[in-house]
Request: fold
Amino acid sequence: MRKIGQMKIQQMAFMIMAVFLFFILVGLFFIGIQFKDVRGTAAQLQKDQAISSLRVIADMPELNYDSSETMTVDEDKLVVMSSNFSGAYNVFWPVASVGVYKIYPAFDSVKKCPGLGCNFYDIYDSGQSNVKTYSTYVSICKRVREEGSAFDRCEVGKLVVGVKINE
Amino acid sequence: MNKLGQFNFVWLFAIIVGGAILFLAIYGAMQAGDTARFQSDTEVAKSIAIITDPLQVGFGESSFGRISFNDETRINNICLGSGFGKNDISVSTRSNVGEEWNLAGGATSIHNKYIFSSEQNSGEDYYVFSKGFDFPYEVADLIFLTAEDYCFINAPEEVVDEVLGLGIPNIEFDYPTGMPLGSELSNCSVADAVKVCFGNGDGCDMMVYGSCQSNCDSVFDAGVVSKGSGGDLKYVGSLMYGAIFSDKAVYECNVERLMYRAGKIAEEFASKGDLMDSRGCDTNIKSDLIVWSGMLFNSTADNLMSMRMTSDNLGKKNKRELCGMWR
Reply:
């Protein structure tokens, strides 16, 4: 009789353990689904931010050429911002990287500016790996003076911003 | 007797363990609910940072948008100064049990925007209004976030034109001594609206005193917004709206952030001056910009009005330049 009682207690203990494990597994399953959803939402929000940041960054007073024009960046400001000056702006950018390419004439290799025949201004790079880039076309302009008169000289460029991808 | 003892033990054991499982299940469900709410509130805060991007003025004068929630929502705006600083935006929803508001979700830090609002706003509809700030060059777009209704009493024509032009529905106008000639405005219709009086008025929640004397479109281009116990907030230009719509702490912190950014832009212009000089586009305002940036780095809202004159002079000097440092 005593042995049967012990057996029943053992059975119940195993049953309780099984029920606990079942609930824990179900909980882990739901947490897994929820975190997958969080990761997806975070990635989507980062993508949305990068796309909407393209215009915001191009029109920032630190880069724009003329406050009355949109998507036009100042080449002199690009030179300044791609030098050591931009170090103070590290926390400021809402994205992982910012760069501007001169896309005409077409080039085979990227040459960092400043330098002769350069075609890429590296404004900011957080150094993060797994970065996905988004881009838009911009005008790169500077004010020049020739034969006593000043005028705008513009080239075609591409603003590229990167967002970190969480895997 | 022995069987009865066994039966009792089995039942007692089952009740205790069953109760523990039930308790853990309920606790787990509540925690899961809290996590889901925290996640949703954090997403909303991040979304606010993103959906205000299209409101950046760009080449326009100002812009307006509305953010609507399904339920009453509280937006917390904590401004942190020092350098570029940031606005920490978090969101909390109304709770049906216990505390009136749930704990706020994770805060989203916004370094490149200047959001002027109370530290805590609540409502279902939020009105977001954006306007550029020049000092004397373009510094940033200011974002004004409001949920309350406002009644502007004796507002100048420039303010009326701007607000009506943007179609901001939570700002109405009132002229107790009679409407301006040719105006089709009606009196304020919302009884508990915040009353903002320009120059004079009765029963005002805050007063705007204009003191602009030169280079002004209106006397209210510079002045003080007096909020009684909320303190006096000095402003220039579009910062007037910031002073009206935000708390003293948020306003002064955002102004310090703006001044720092204006100082960094002045430094950038000074470096740009060297590049312009090297290709014959000479500039004479480099030294002024270096001095100006030094002034800006140490300035607060209290210095705004005294600095306005220097800013105006710098703007005039730039206009006289052939190439021009900024346009």
